[in-house]
Each structure stands twice: as structure tokens, then as C-alpha cells.
Model the fold of this input.
Amino acid sequence: MPRYIGRRLLLAIPTLFGVATVVFFLIRLIPGDPAQVIAGEQATPEQVAHIREILGLNLPVWEQYLRFLGNLLHGSMGTSTVTGDPVLMDVAQHLPNTLELTVVALAIGIVVGVILGLIAASNQGKPIDVIVSAVSVAGMSVPTYWLGLNLIVLFAVQLHWFPPSGNDTPSSIVLPAVTLATLSIAVIARMTRSSLLEVLSQDFVRTARAKGASPLRVILRHALPNAIPPILTVIGVQFGLMLGGAVLTESVFTWPGMGSLLINSISARDFPVVQGCVLLFSVGFIIVNIAVDLLYSVVDPRIAISTRPLHKRAVRVPARLPA
Done:
């Protein structure tokens, strides 16, 4: 297992290098001069030139790129051009809020999505199955910002149940978490239904039913454990997408997380912070995928055996060879 994890981490290095390269050059295509933004509209050309020199923006792009890679190799993402603090310090102030929102939203997505998938698979072809499928399609189609604004109007402005923005109270997380979890609920519900229907058609399930097992026991004890691996894959992908997809949700609800930091940094042309945020999202996505792969061996021992080297796999030799 350590060798497998090490191999996956080594394979992640080219991915991160590619992401860093693409982000570095793409962000410089954004119109506007960071030095001019920092100096203000009333600044003189000499002041703007001085700021460009301090930030290293007067250097050729290839030299800026080499400096950027050198800082990464030394564990530094640079310094924010707005706050003057290291990028890692700015990220550390906003990352816990994003993780809190993402974990709560993922928990809602898993619980509600799996329950809806179980209900739909247990009632295949019935009206409840059609309703769950329709709700899943709607959840995948509704824009995040539209849903968030409508939840604010209904539950914050009209009913006064939850705060419309910020994270001042524990109830402040409810509306943004539900908004962020909507897509995950739909995707997990559809995958749970599909995976369960495939397992329910297999012979061992028919055998369990023939032995008199109740429908609930058949689904929870026999079918669901064998349907978990595809569901885990979807959950891992959704968690990674939530980390990056929280940008819109945090903007709508003014949630002080990585999304708000990224939007403000783009507006201020704060290149180092934007690069750091995107790299951090990429690292989180890679770590989540590795964690999901490791969970496979926990829920399905056959996968653990198949990932072992051939010389370490247990091979059953018959006690007596056939004649």
C-alpha cells in the first residue's frame, strides 16, 4: 500500500506541473495591469513603473515563469500583491471555511442522495421512481446562483428562518450547504439507483429472496454493500468538484472561503493568490481521488488483492491435481 500511494503521488507531479503552467499563462491574459490596479487611477506613470518593478512584472514572462516554478520548488506560492502577506497565509485564513462548507454539503449530498437512490431502486417503474428521477434531473440542471438567490428570497427574506449571508451564526451554513449539495444529491441518487438495479438483478440476490429474506434486508444487507464502489467514485469526484464549485456559492452567500478569495483576487489582478488557489484546488482533487481508491480496498477486499504485486498474491493450489 505505501508503494501504491507513492506511485500515485509521483504520477500527480506532472499533473500539478501542467496545472501550474496553464494557470500562470492564462491568468496573464486577463485585461488590466496589476500595478495600475494597486497604484490607483490617479497614480503617475513613474509610480506604476515602480510598483511593476517591485512586483517583478517588468521582467520577461519566461523569467517570471521560472521564478514562479522556483518558488513552488521551495514550498512558496509567492506573496500577495494586495495584502503583502504570503499566499499560504491568505489561503490558511479562508481554507477552513471552505472545508467546513464542503464537508457539510457533501454529508447532505450523501445522506439524501443515497436515500433517494434506495427508494427509486426499490420501486423501479413505479410513480415514486419517476418522481425521484425527475427531481434528480432537475437538481443537475438548476444553476447554482439561481437556486441560491431563490433560497435567500424564500427562507431569509420572507420566512426569516436563516441568515442571508456571512457565517456569523451556526445556522448561516444551512442555505449555502443546501445550495452546494443540490448537484451532488442528484448525481449520487442517480448513481445509487443505477448501481443497485444492476446488483439486484444478480443471482445471489435472487437466492437471498428465495430464502425468505425481507426486501429491506435484501437491499441493505446484500445489494447495497456490492453497489458501494461506483457510489464511492461519484462521491470522491463530487467532493473534488465541490472544492472548486464553491466559488459561485460562496459569492452568492458572501461566505468567507476560498471562492470569495479567488473572486476578489481576480478582480484585483492578484496573480499569486489566484495561482495558489487553483493549485490548492488541484491538490485537493488529487488527494481525494487517492483516498477514494484506498477506500475501495476497505469496502471490497477483492480490489485489495488485485492491486498487490503478483508475487505477493495468495494463490490457492489444489491438494490433488486432476488425472
